[in-house]
């Protein structure tokens, strides 16, 4: 009888231990899920913008009407700085001007879903980051990620047939997103009367900065003592810009009607200069042989999305003309640079955009100054050109 009882007790204890182990594992797994959820909600995701936001905290700015090109939700980002100065900052990420580009998705179709990653991807260590080397680190930042294919300037729906033969809609919602976000920021953030305002962006965002600077200065910050706009890496020639803005993007008529030539950036900045004169500091920068812009320019010229050194020669020639036009029509100042390769490509192509990268804070040997310091000097009324002779350099 004793042996029989002993076996029974041993057999009874085994499932009890197994149950305890499983219960412990379950609790640990649950705690991990809770921890991961807390990290996601309170670290990786930003809180929604609220009244009287804290200085130095990133917020998301969104509404049900804001959407990306595929119809998914869109949000802008906001951080209040300790200085009474504001950067309105537009991100780049391709463009769509027709059904072929819509179909090939030559643009960011949606935002990265995790806020902190979307923000880091947009900034990439450039002038919107709070590094010690950044002269803009204490400024308020209003950021517009790019996911609408319209240089941040559209309000419409573009229907097209995708590669699978399915009808789709590309929501060119850039201007709508921008307007709704700015309305929220102005209502909640307490930044109505900044001393200095810089409207800028890189690549597609540089075009956006040129297109929307008048809107920013007129509707949101008319009393800023210093107004500056910088278009970084934003030179593309297309004789149909007005038609694209009007019929593809459904850009507001007051913006689209400024587009009268094949140079969307020049038209926008020239119009701004005619309206504001020297009250607005107009800046433009570009590398001499921008590989990405040379590729898109080739598509506009020939229908082929490809690039080689001959196409970079064309870009360099167009840039030389742009320098003359910016100086004489838009009263602007330029920073032309080279020395940074186009990705790891061994050909004579140069890097596309700079203000969203740490290169912003490095002094160029030829110019003896960094892009960031050049911009800051311009904000303070110290306007100067750099590197203009590089367009005559033989590569």
Strand order of the largest sheet: 1-2-4-3-7-8-9-10
Mean pLDDT: 92
Shape: globular
- Sequence of secondary-structure elements: HEEEHHEEEHEHEHHHEHHEH
Gyration radius from CA atoms, angstroms:
26 Å
SSE topology:
Elements: H1 2-44, E1 58-67, E2 73-79, E3 85-90, H2 99-104, H3 115-123, E4 140-144, E5 156-161, E6 167-172, H4 174-188, E7 196-202, H5 204-219, E8 226-232, H6 241-248, H7 253-256, H8 264-276, E9 280-287, H9 291-302, H10 309-329, E10 333-337, H11 371-379
Parallel strand pairs: 3-4, 3-7, 7-8, 8-9, 9-10
Antiparallel strand pairs: 1-2, 2-4, 5-6
Helix pairs in contact: 5-8, 8-10, 9-10
Task: Explain the overall architecture.
- With 395 residues, this protein is of the alpha/beta class.
- The protein has helices at 2-44, 99-104, 115-123, 174-188, 204-219, 241-248, 253-256, 264-276, 291-302, 309-329, 371-379, and strands spanning 58-67, 73-79, 85-90, 140-144, 156-161, 167-172, 196-202, 226-232, 280-287, 333-337.
- The strands form two sheets. Strands 1-2-4-3-7-8-9-10 form an eight-stranded mixed beta sheet, sandwiched between helices. A two-stranded antiparallel ribbon has the order 5-6.
- The termini are far apart.
- Residues 1-7 and 31-42 have low confidence and may be disordered.
Question: What would a concise description of this structure say?
Answer:
The protein is α/β, with parallel strands linked by helices and 395 residues long. It is 39% helix and 17% strand. The strands form 2 sheets. An 8-stranded mixed beta sheet has the order 1-2-4-3-7-8-9-10, with helices on both faces.
């Amino acid at each position: 009888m004793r042996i029989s009882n002993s076996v029974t007790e041993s057999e009874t204890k085994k499932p009890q231990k197994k149950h305890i182990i499983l219960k412990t594992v379950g609790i640990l797994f649950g705690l991990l899920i809770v921890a991961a959820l807390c990290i996601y909600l309170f670290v990786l995701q930003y809180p929604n913008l609220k009244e009287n936001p804290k200085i130095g905290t990133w917020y998301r700015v969104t509404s049900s009407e804001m959407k990306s090109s595929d119809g998914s939700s869109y949000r802008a980002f906001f951080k209040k700085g300790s200085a009474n100065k504001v950067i309105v900052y537009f991100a780049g990420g391709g463009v769509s001007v027709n059904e072929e580009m819509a179909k090939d998705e030559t643009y960011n179709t949606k935002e990265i879903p995790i806020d902190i990653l979307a923000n880091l991807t947009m900034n990439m260590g450039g002038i919107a980051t709070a590094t010690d080397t950044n002269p803009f680190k204490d400024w308020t930042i209003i950021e517009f990620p790019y996911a609408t294919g319209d240089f941040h300037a559209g309000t419409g729906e573009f229907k097209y047939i995708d590669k699978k033969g399915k009808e789709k809609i590309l929501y060119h919602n850039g201007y709508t997103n921008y307007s709704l976000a700015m309305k929220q920021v102005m209502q909640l953030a307490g930044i109505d009367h900044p001393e200095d305002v810089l409207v800028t962006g890189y690549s597609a965002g540089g075009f956006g900065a040129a297109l929307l600077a008048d809107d920013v200065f007129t509707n949101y910050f008319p009393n800023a003592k210093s107004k500056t706009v910088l278009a970084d890496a934003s030179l593309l020639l297309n004789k149909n810009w007005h038609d694209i803005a009007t019929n593809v993007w459904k850009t507001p008529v007051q913006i689209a009607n400024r587009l009268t030539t094949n140079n969307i950036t020049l038209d926008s900045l020239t119009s701004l200069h005619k309206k504001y004169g020297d009250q607005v500091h107009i800046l433009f920068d570009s590398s001499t042989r921008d590989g990405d812009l040379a590729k898109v320019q080739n598509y506009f010229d020939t229908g082929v999305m490809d690039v080689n050194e001959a196409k970079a020669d064309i870009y360099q020639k167009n840039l030389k003309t742009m320098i003359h036009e910016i100086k004489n029509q838009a009263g602007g100042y330029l920073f032309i640079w080279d020395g940074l390769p186009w990705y790891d490509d061994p050909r004579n192509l140069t890097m596309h955009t700079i203000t969203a990268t740490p290169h912003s804070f490095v002094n160029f040997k030829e110019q003896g100054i960094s892009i960031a310091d050049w911009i800051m000097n311009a904000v303070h009324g110290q306007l100067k050109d750099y590197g203009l002779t590089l367009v005559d350099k033989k590569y």
